Amino acid sequence: MKLSVWAEKQGVSYRTAFRWFQNGTMPCRVTQMPTGTIIVHDDPEVQKVSTNVIVYTRVSSYDRKDCLVSQAKRCCDFAETLGLSVDKIHKEIASGMNDKRKKLTSLLESKPSHIIVEHKDRLTRFGFNYIELLLSQQGCELIVVNRDEDDEVDLMKDLISIITSFCCRLYGLRRGQNKAKKIKDEIVNEDVV
């Protein structure tokens, strides 16, 4: 059967199946015709490819924690329309600028076949295209439910998130320095008395 038909039966996208063919990681025998058509030999012992579909949801603060549930539901509903069965849902409360998110790290280490996010910024604020490229080379399809088609809107969102993130870091740094100064002053005053 043709690769596109096989991919549909397995519940994976044609793009992912083609990537597997290119990488030589197809779970069954495949040949390419002189015309370029890829034929998958339907061996009876070959089982359906097990998928590892993961939904990743994120909010940046605890006061928005309730949004994680609705975000996860929308992603799961979208996966269902694609014919994918979600194996796991990762919910995380962290900044999109934070590069040390435990749930995202464990998700990436699990080598999923599909990652579903509601918006690009739920996965990361910057470097989304790099992550998407790296995941595709590892045979993982990154599915974004709502992609911003307007680059200007996307850039404005990124600019606002950068300013917000750096302001929080700056104020947090100042607060830490002020606390350290206060403790130092208290210690010095105790030594004087």
List the keywords:
Rossmann fold; 7 helices; alpha/beta; elongated; 193 residues; four-stranded parallel sheet; two-stranded antiparallel sheet; 6 strands; 3 domains
How would you sum up this structure, described in words?
The strands form 2 sheets. A 4-stranded parallel sheet has the order 4-3-5-6, sandwiched between helices. Helix content is 50%, strand content 14%. Helix 1 packs across helix 2 (14-23). It starts with a helix and ends with a helix. The model is unreliable at 44-50 (pLDDT under 50). It folds into 3 domains: 3-40, no CATH class; 53-144, Rossmann fold, CATH 3.40.50.1390; 150-193. The protein has 193 residues and is an alpha/beta fold. The protein has helices at 3-10, 14-23, 67-81, 102-109, 120-123, 128-137, 151-192; strands at residues 30-32, 38-40, 53-59, 88-93, 114-117, 141-144. The chain is built from 7 helices and 6 strands; from the N terminus they run H-H-E-E-E-H-E-H-E-H-H-E-H. The chain is elongated and about 90 Å long.
Radius of gyration using CA atoms only: 23 Å
Global morphology: elongated
Number of domains: 3
- Roughly what percent helix? 40-55%
Largest sheet: 4 strands, parallel
Return the average pLDDT rounded to an integer.
81
**Which CATH class of the largest domain?**
Alpha Beta
Order of helices and strands: HHEEEHEHEHHEH
- Report the total helices: 7
Q: Which structural class is indicated by helix and strand composition? A: alpha/beta
Percent of sequence in beta strands: 5-15%
- State the total count of DSSP E strands: 6
